[in-house]
Every structure is written in structure tokens, then in C-alpha cells.
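Lab meeting prep.
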Amino acid sequence: MHEIADPIACINCPLQDCPGLRPLEEHQLAFMQGFKEGEVALARGELLISEGQSHQQLYTLLGGVLIRWRSLDDGRRQIVNFMFPGDLVGLQSAFDEPAAHAVEALVDARLCRFSRGRFTDLIASHPGLGYDITWLAAQEETALEGHIVSLGQRSARERVAYLAVWLIDRARATCLADDGNRVGLPITQVQIADMLGLSLVHTNRTLRQLLREGLVEWKSREIRIPDLDHTAEFAQYDRGAARARPFI
């Protein structure tokens, strides 16, 4: 991870133009320019947060995709979630405790950096932004509920299909994919298995079956779904109209 020498001015924030994100108002942009402490860049595979690490920063993901995961003492790993542009990173653990999870760059990523110590200043000065942060936390919990239901109740085929539709929907909303039915993300079969609680053999077999059925085409660097609505129905994934997500 390294500090970016020429950070983007908040008024020129690329997230302002993403269709699935709610743009900040002019006075909010002015406040965030003073609240923001800088920007950092991560290379693919690099850690932003390590398990057990105490950290004093919060981040907003400007570009790229991150994965949040926890590991067991024997090295087994559970991917908890994928994080997309506009997501707030670092609020998932208690402010006064070390992180219980790690955050890793799935692809090269760029993030705005804020101080945790000034978090109360943001809430006091702009209660609307404080509400937005609470809403983001609630939305992440809703996403986690969907993934937990997959682990407990969906079949292997349904789990993979659900994850594929969810990833494409999130990518389209955050300027990482166009309005089509594909997204370029280098998600490996090992990472799919770590997310969905499947063995690597079972993951490979499931991907081949979904390909034969015309539901999901999951390649090493691309996910394509021939018919998003049909695959969403198969996975019991609700693609109803979602409100634009706030960000800070």
C-alpha cells in the first residue's frame, strides 16, 4: 500500500457519476474535502487491513474491488463479502478493538483515507452523512444475510448463481461494468469455494454444470450470465429496483 501523491479533489470524485450511487451535494463535497486525509493505492493481492491489526483509518473505495475474509488457525479461510466502489471500509470492526477480519485487494484499488478519530466531527457537522453511514452498515448486513442463506439453504448451483448475479448487479451500479450481462473480475475457483463453503472439486463441477445449463459462464477473468432475470429467478435472487446507495 502506498500513499498517492496527487489525490482527486472531492468535487471531481468519479463516484459522483455512478448510476447506482447517490451523488453528494455541493456543501457535503466541501466538507469531505477537509475531512479527507489522502488517498492510498493497493496492488492486487495486497492487504489493506490484517486480522488482529489495530487501525485508525476509515476508507471509501474509489476504484477496484476488495474482499473481506476471516481465517482459522489451520489456514482455512472464509470470504465474508466483496466490496465495491462507494463502500466504506474499516467500520466493520469495533472502533477500540483489533480487526477480526482482513481486507484484500481483488484487483488494483484506490481508496480515500479518513481518520477514525474525526468520525464524531462528521456526524456532528453533517447528521445526514451520519445517517448515510448507518444505512450503509444496514445494507451490508442485508447482503450478509443473503450470503448466509446461501450457505445454509441454497444448493451449490443456486449458491454460485446467486453470487454471480449479485456481483454483476453491484458492478453495474458502481461503474465497473456496463449495462450488459458480464463483468470482468479475476475471481478464482478457490475464492468462489472460500466464499460459498464448497470444496474446490465441487466448485469446479458446479461451474461446469451451470455452463451446460446456460445459467452462468464463469471464466478466470470474466463472469457472464446469458439471461440475468432467468438466472436470478433460479437462484431466488430479488433483482427489484434498488435505491441509489450513499457514500462519503
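Slide two material, second protein:
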Amino acid sequence: MPDGKRRALLKAGAGALPLLLLPGCGSGSHPSTGGGGSLPPGTPAITPRGLHVSFTGDPQTTRTLSWFTDGSVDPGGVIEYGPVTPDMDARAIATAAFPSRAEGTATATYGVDALTHRATAADLPADLPLRYRVGSAQGWSAVQLLPAAAGENFRFCHFGDHAQNDASRAVRDGVISRAPDFTIIAGDLAYANGEQSLWDSYFDMLQPLAARIPIMTAPGNHEAKDGGGQGYSSRVAQPGKGTYYSWQYGRVHFVHSTGGSLLGSDAASAAALVDELLWLELDLASAALQRAAGRIDFIVFVQHYTIWTDDDGRNPANFELVALEEQYLLLYGVDLLLVGHDHIYERSKPMALGLPLPGGYVQVTQGGGGQDLYSVLANPASWSAMAVARHAFTELSVEAGRIKGTTWAVDDASNELRRDGSLESIDQFEIVARGATASAGFARSARPRSAVLADIDAVIAHTRQRNVLHDLIEIGGEHLGP
């Protein structure tokens, strides 16, 4: 289905949303495929909350739904779903029986008396939006709508450091208004910092976005404060290991890394980082070979930490660590690096080794997702194309071998939020796919284990040093830590 028609159908379906609150349209009385049954009088209601969608399988034909229920008793969650067809009006979208259902799983949610439920809707028609609800006979969510898969031409949004405040909600609403095909959050989601109930309020806040637009994430340093990442990993559903993974949408290969954000002083987290680096080597080598063979156009790398920054207080970088991290980007020709961590917006020129370099990677730092902003150096480095302290998100449009980026601010130049919900375009850029000759230059077999781990002691030492330093300065109330 053409992109314009697909989006028009989704917008038409969105008109059903007010109906979802009518009696019988978002509760257990909603028509289904069966299996709900009636409950004995006095059975307590268990209402799903914190709905969020992600891709754990083929993005063209599957969607994975995650949600939470309070208490340790599993009500037996399922997802009921079906396509939104052109003949469906708003009431039919809200009330028609669902043709399909899938059983979910339930696991304990870290740090609270609750369960995390996950279920995957499969065999979806790629050209039609999806309507669904999750829950059980003890309580259902309202019916939600998801966009159809977009194919090779698609749009996605990126931000990090989201938190839970007015700016966070403004960024959330701004992303919703752009109706992307999915959104990437580059770490530091809830800022729970050990208070696990804050994850509950975060996903409640995120639900208007995350129940309607798939969310793909990476952990940040604040996720490490929740049981070394357990608070994060027990609540999200992502491919592979969950904390690091890769996936493909259209002709773009996405790689999500911890960037060492979950490395602590213990041997187990160090061993996990070793495993990740070995996996990363294989994945990037495979992606570079695919690009050289003409099967993909771009390699996009996602992590929380910046490689280079003009954030006033985090510059200069730890050059030893930068050199160790950057080797992966340069060896396999990563095209675009999406990060957060520094609470500013900054876009680099194509760069490498701290210098502008045609054919290098472009780093987009989008740390203005909601948390308090930082300051930009008065004289940014030569590799920087733009740096500004604004609450914002970046929208990226992929089409015909190009990635076109637009950064939308939700505040004005004095950092006052735009109360009318309008957005200001503060930056635009374009990345063109490498040609066949350039792509071939990065195509190589993965290095052997001995080569990948040749500097592992330095990697672990410098990563720990960075993580501890940021925590210590945060405790001291200085800028560098959050």
C-alpha cells in the first residue's frame, strides 16, 4: 500500500479512539474470538497498564505487545487482534470481533509486586493497520491501533534521556504528532534510579505513544542503577539478548548496544560485555558484507553514551576509551550513530578520530528528550555541524538510498515549552548511501576472538572509569553525572 494511503487509513482509524471509552468497547464485554468466559461474582478486576509495542521478530509481519498487571497472580493474558480494513468505520474498529488471538507469557516485574506480560501478534498483513487489545477475562485494555508496516521507505524518531516531566510529555506528544513507523529511545528512559515504582509511572506516561507506535530502546547509565539493568530488562521486550541486539527494517540494519552502560565492578557484568563485543564483531561484519552485496543501504548504530561531545562539562572525552569504541564504527563503516546521554542536541559532520572526514560516520546526540538540559561549549569542535541545548527529537526519513533528518524542538530558544503543542524545525540534514566501491572497502570477515579481545582489559578499565566517574560527580551534584 502506498505510504500516503496507508497513513490516511491509519488516521481514519484514529477517529475510533473516542469510541473506545464507550461501555462495552474497552472492557471484558468486547466481542472476541472466545476463551474469555464469564467470571464468578466478586472476582477482582485486573486491568492491563503500561502498554508498549516493539519488534522482536519480522517487523513486516509481527508486533510484540508488553504490559503489566498488579499482584503476583497471573490472570492469563492474551492479545486479540485483527487488521483494519478499508470498509471498517470507527465503530467497527472499536467493537468488531477480533479474528486472531495469541497467548502471552508472564514473568515477575523487577522490584515491584507485579507481572510483565508479553505476547506476539503474528502473520500480520503488511499493508494494513492493526487493531488490538490485551488482557484477560479479568480486564481488558482499550482497543488500540498500530500502523501498517512501511516497507523500504519509512520514517522513525529518535531521542534519549526521557524522564517524567512536562518536557518529557511534550516530546512524547510531538513524536505522536509526526506519526512515525517506530521510535528509538537511546537510553535513560524512566530515571527510576532504584525506585522501581517510577517505572510504573513512566510506562503509564509513555503509553499514549508506545501503545500505538513501536518502541525500540537501548539501556543507559540510569538503567544500570536498577539492579544492573534488571529493572529495564524485566519490563521491555527487544530482540536477541534484549540489552543488545540487531534488527532490520527495509534496507537499514540497526545495531543496539549497551555501550558499556551496564558494566559494574563485578565479574559477571564484565563477562557480559565480553560476550557483547564478540557478538558485535560478528554482527557488524555480517552487515558490512550485506551492504557490499547490495542487500542493505545503511548501518545505524544505537547506544546511550556519546563518542564525542561538545557538552560543556563532558568535554574533552576519555580519548583511550573513544579509540577503543570507535574502532567498530570505523572498521565496518557505520553510517549513523544515534546516542543520548548529553542533554543537548548535537549533530556531527561525517567524522572519525575527532576530525571531520568524508565517508566517516555521523553522530546524532539527542539527549533533550525531557530531562533537564545542559550547556554547549562556546566554541564547538571542528567536527560539529550543529550543537544547541533544546528539548527536541529527531525524525529520520529513509527513502531511495538517503536518510533525511529533521530535528524538531518542543521548546523555544529560551527553553520555554511551546504550550500550543507546535514544533520548530531547528536542523535538517541528509546522509547518502555509500556507493558500491566505498561499501566494498568495509566488507571483511569478522576478526578472530584474539584480535577482538586484544585490548579487553583496557576496554573494561576505561569503561568502568567512565561509569564510576559519572556516578561520583552526580552524587556531588555536578553537571557531569546525570
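Talking points for slide two:
Confidence is low (pLDDT under 50) at residues 9-36.
Residues 154-468 form a domain with the Purple Acid Phosphatase; chain A, domain 2 fold (CATH 3.60.21.10).
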